[in-house]
Amino acid sequence: MFCPFCGVNLPSVLVYCGSCCRNVRFLRSLQDEGPEASTPVDELIQKYFTEGHSYEIIVDLLKTKHNISVSFRNLQRRLKHASLTRRINYTPIATVQAAISEELKGSGQLLGYRAMWQILKQKHSLVVRRDDVMRLMAELDPCGTENRCRRRFVRRAYHSMGPNETWHVDGYDKLKPFGIAISGCIDGFSRKIMWLNCGKTNNDPSVIAQNYINCVVEHGVFPKRLRTDCGTENGIMAAIQCTMRSEHTDEFAGAKSHMYGTSTSNQRIESWWSYFRKQRSQFWMDLFSDLRERHLFNGSPAHTKLVRHCFLRVLQKELDEYKLYWNTHTIRPVHQSRCPSGKPEAMYYVPQRFDGSNCGFPASAQTLNHITSIMPVPATPAGDEHETLFGELQRQSGVRAPLQWESAVENYITLKNMSGL
Asked: Could you give the CA distance from residue 187 to residue 269 in angstroms, rounded to a whole number?
């Protein structure tokens, strides 16, 4: 078989011509149809040689997997006849460079020079020195080479143009076994907590929508984008966001102003929940677990309602306190983040000091009044016998509404004993 571009004899058709460096892969089909087509043994030998096996391994693989007996000397002759070598007749550097450039266009940009060397041998059937691959990789992909030399896992950097560009909304369910659900929202640029509320549920769409409307009314702006997971509780909020943003003409107007995604991809609020657990919620989880260990809580509906009755106000007070402290604390710089460092409250209200600009859209008083008028009221079950019983027992015993967790625990035990739970 001869190269159609330069006329050089090609004993074995690989991918590139060793003389003119042109791609001759299409000749393989013609070679298979010719009178001197290679035998199955030669094809197996070429396959195992290209995969990088040693001569001894190739002999053993032919015998074990294919029941073909080939001597070591016969294997050497077949390889020589097919011009298959590893240390002579190296592929021209221009051909190697072209193959590496092709691989770097896709997922090959993640490979180091050793893995790239293997790909060149197995996929492109090139004969090349590993040091040459290392040098070419440093020339063609200097940034990737530097990152691999640092031996650090490179994460995607979060980027935001300014406050109100993206609000990240999510629910926190760690306290749900004890009857308390938390809903939160954080601004992607400033990391300011927009709302942090606890209640009976965070699965009611009207409850989440009410949190959103209250926040919009408080700050007087609609966010450019809203980011949530795929839960049904976000439906009304998403509809309001898309409806109000349909009047604008930017690239994220209308339906594009809300984005569904997985919880793991909602990184701003998900990463913040880890801070919240380490600094606040772990205490409450341990407190309620202690009640369970002392056989004062068994997870029944009546017990969860009693926990909510005694602890909800105290917990909401602590959430408001933590929201205030978080929004006024200093966030230190992080190399992997493109967002600024500083106090969330300052970054939200004076973004120009932090190389940002307000990306929100003002909400007129007329629009806010219209939204408030059509907003569905969260469902409140009427005549709940347990709530009525706990309220009556609290009035009879003269127990005051707790302001601290210690008094909330005392009230819980007192009302539990009085109700016979």
From this structure: 9
